[in-house]
Write a structure and sequence with these properties.
Layout (H helix, E strand, L loop, with lengths): L7 H14 L6 E12 L8 E17 L5 E6 L9 H13 L2 E7 L10 H16 L6 H16 L5 H8 L2 E5 L4 E5 L6 E7 L7 H7 L7 H20 L2 H8 L6 H4 L6 H10 L4 E4 L6 E5 L2 H17 L4 E7 L6 E4 L2
Parallel strand pairs: 3-4
Antiparallel strand pairs: 1-2, 1-11, 2-4, 2-5, 5-6, 7-9, 7-10, 8-9
Helix pairs in contact: 1-2, 2-3, 2-4, 3-4, 3-5, 4-5, 7-8
Length: 334
């Protein structure tokens, strides 16, 4: 299912079949929230992500079975609605399932910061619209269609951020079997997220991918494999020390993407010297994150890192967050 929905026509054909079995006849209004996420987690390039608390996108949908209007109001970003992921996804659903849609998107996740902003918007749209139209979609189908939404921004579908934002918790992507595996963890795990306020290239995700090498040294591949296995075992055992050691190592993306982030290795050294258990780049950056043992350490590490960047003349902000284990949440208003 992962690579099945790569363009809008394929999604329309799929939704046409689904809508023929379930057409809503009544008005409905609902609200769906989808959390921010950290992708890669060091060595887990394109295969691991985790949903985090506090930051989220909220989408309100009002549906009327009569008419064919489609309107979107966005708070939090200023881009033409026709270029917005939510509008693009909604237009596909509407063409297949009909009726009028009035949408309001509250962007709580900063864009182009490596925190899964486009993924959260895509998830909110697919989850909310499938509920609006009464369409029964599997987890894999929701994530696949949301991955198409990601491709509007990133140029190709990515499933790490969308799977974590939808399912919550840690998520492992099985690219061979086309599955998304949620890794349940009961312990509260805290992160510090530092966001340098720096200019980012247009099409940042594509640019960040262009920095990566086409060929990898065999020794680096072996070390990468070792560290992702160590990270998964750490998650399974809820061993924060092991998790921190593993997620601090990345031989695929970190050496190249770190060049986009001012004073990156200074920040990493300072964080680890101040009781952070691990440190790496959040997604494609420029945000960075630290793993800590509790909320107190998360706040303290954030203050120290933020102060360091500020003294270097780099505007920044930080926040602390723990794992969001719920993922996307739908509330029917009427």
């Amino acid at each position: 299912m992962i690579r099945r929905f790569l363009d809008s026509n394929m999604i329309k054909d799929f939704l046409n079949i689904k809508c023929s079995y379930s057409k809503r006849k009544n008005r409905i209004r609902l609200k769906v929230s989808a959390p921010a996420s950290i992708a890669n987690l060091g060595p887990g390039f394109d295969v691991l992500a985790v949903a985090i608390s506090d930051l989220k996108d909220i989408l309100e949908i009002s549906y009327d079975p009569h008419g064919s209007d489609l309107d979107l109001e966005v708070q939090g970003i200023d881009i033409p609605k026709e270029e917005n992921i939510v509008y693009r996804i909604a237009s596909i659903f509407q063409e297949s399932c009909e009726g009028s849609l009035y949408l309001k998107l509250f962007k709580g996740i900063p864009i182009s910061k490596g925190l899964g902003s486009s993924g959260a918007s895509s998830v909110a749209a697919v989850v909310g619209l499938s509920k609006t139209y009464g369409i029964d979609l599997s987890d894999e189908e929701i994530i696949s269609i949301a991955g198409y939404g990601e491709s509007i921004v990133a140029g190709e579908p990515h499933y790490d951020n969308v799977s974590a934002s939808y399912l919550g918790g840690f998520v492992l992507i099985d690219h061979e079997m086309n599955r998304f595996i949620k890794l349940d963890i009961k312990k509260d795990i805290w992160f510090t997220i530092l966001i340098p306020e720096i200019p980012v290239p247009e099409n940042k995700t594509l640019y960040a991918r262009s920095l990566l090498p086409n060929n990898l040294d065999r020794r680096d591949v072996i070390k990468q494999m070792s560290n992702i296995a160590k990270l998964l075992i750490g998650i399974y055992k809820e061993d924060l020390k092991m998790m921190g050691e593993a997620l601090s190592k990345d031989y695929i993306a970190e050496p190249y993407r770190s060049k986009m982030i001012p004073y990156y290795y200074d920040l990493k050294k300072i964080a680890l010297e101040n009781e952070a258990l691990g440190f790496n780049i959040s997604g494609a950056g420029p945000s960075v994150f630290a793993l800590t043992k509790d909320s107190f350490d998360a706040e303290r590490v954030g203050r120290i890192l933020s102060k360091y960047l500020s003294e270097k003349g780099v505007e920044n902000r930080y926040f602390t967050a723990k794992i969001n284990n719920f993922g996307a949440v739908v509330e029917v208003i009427m």
